[in-house]
Amino acid sequence: MQIEHRQAHHRFVASLPEGEAILAYRITSTGAMDIRSTYVPAFARGRGTGGALVEAALTYARANGHRVIPTCWYVSTWIAEHPEFQSVLTAGASGSA
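Structure (tokenized):
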């Protein structure tokens, strides 16, 4: 699956036959990456698309020195299941929903 980073629009996108799957974020005034939402079209769910979007965003954050605020519940849950990404969380952020 190919994930496209549309940096100007603050989103990661996977184009699927069922439509676009999207992870939306914003960069805060402190430079943290606040991941606000993930969306996968209903008929495309359960195939790992959401996880692929989260992993792409967290890998980008890590590579670019951004700390992550997991505002989206799905991101918090995903990080709790992938402790290798705990280190990108901002102080006080939790990887558990």
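The two ends are 27 Å apart (CA to CA). Strands lie at 4-6, 11-16, 19-27, 33-39, 68-69.
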